[in-house]
Structure of Heavy metal translocating P-type ATPase:
Amino acid sequence: STPAAIAAGLSTGARRGLLMKGGVVLEGLSRITAVALDKTGTITEGKPKVTDVVAAGRSDRDVLSLAAALERGSSHPLALAILDKAKAEGAPVPPAFDAQAIPGEGVSGSVGGMKAFLGSPQAVARTVSLAPWESQIRSLNDEGKTVSVLLAGGAVAGLLAIRDEPRADAAAGLSALKHEGIQAVMLTGDNRRTAQAIARSLGIEAQAELLPQDKQRIVKELQGRGFVVAKVGDGINDAPALAAADVGIAMGGGTDVALETADAAALHGRMRDIPDMIALAKSAMGNIR
Ligand code: ADP
Ligand code: MG
C-alpha cells in the first residue's frame, strides 16, 4: 500500500465517524481475525433502565436514595440508570463519602455514617450469603435483566434490576463480522444467565462474570492461539483489555478516557461500524480477500 492510499483510508474513515489514529492502526485493523466485544454500552445501547426495585426492610425510595448516593460520582451506564430512576421517583440523593468504583464489581462508600456497597451478586456473594435471594435474582436474569445488590451496614438492603437492550443493528453488525470470517466473542462482567439470554438472541458466543483482568487474559489467550485481536469497549472499565488487544476500539461518542486509550473509535456507535472499519482498512492496505 502507498502512503497516499493510507491517508485516503484514514480520511474516508474520519468522514464516516470511524476514527483511526494513524497508519499503524489502519494496518493492524486490516489483519484482524477476532473481535472481542463488551456487552454493556457496546453490544447494548448502554442506556439501561431500572425495571424493578426490591426493598428489604426499608422503602423502595430509601433503596433508591442509598443506591443513587453511591452512584452519584460514577459514569457507569448502570449508575446513570439508577440516578435517573431516583430523580423520576423524587428520591433524595444524600452525599456519599469515600465513594469508590470497583471496576467490574460495583461501587462502595459511606452514606449517612453507614458503610454501603452496590454491585454484582458475584461480588456481594464473596462476603454475604445471597441464598435467600438466589431464586429471585435468577428469574430477573432470565428476563434479560442485570441485578445489582445493595448492601447497607453489611446486610442486603435491596435489589435493583436493570435492562439494557441490544443496539438496533447489533445482530446485523455481528453477522457481518462472521461473514468476513472474523471470530466474535462477547466478554462481560455481567452474570451468566443475562449474558446468555442476550448472546443467544444475537447468535454470538459469550464469556460472562469476568473482571477487567479476566477480559485482558482472554484477549491474550486469543492472541496466543494466533488470532489478531480487536477489543471493542466503552472504555469505562476495560482499559487493560483494550490495551492488550492488537487494536483497541472505543464504541460511541463515549468518554474522553475511551477516546484517549483506544487506537480507534466508532463515533456513531453502530455495530456495523466495526465490520465497516475493518473492511475500509483492508481495502486501504490493498488487502481485500
Ligand atoms: P460489562 O462487562 O457488561 O461492561 P462491567 O464489567 O462494567 O459490565 O460490570 C460488571 C457488573 O458489575 C455489572 O453487571 C454490575 O452488576 C456490576 N457493576 C459494575 N459497576 C457498577 C456500578 N457502578 N453500579 C452497579 N453495579 C455495577
Ligand atoms: Mg463495561
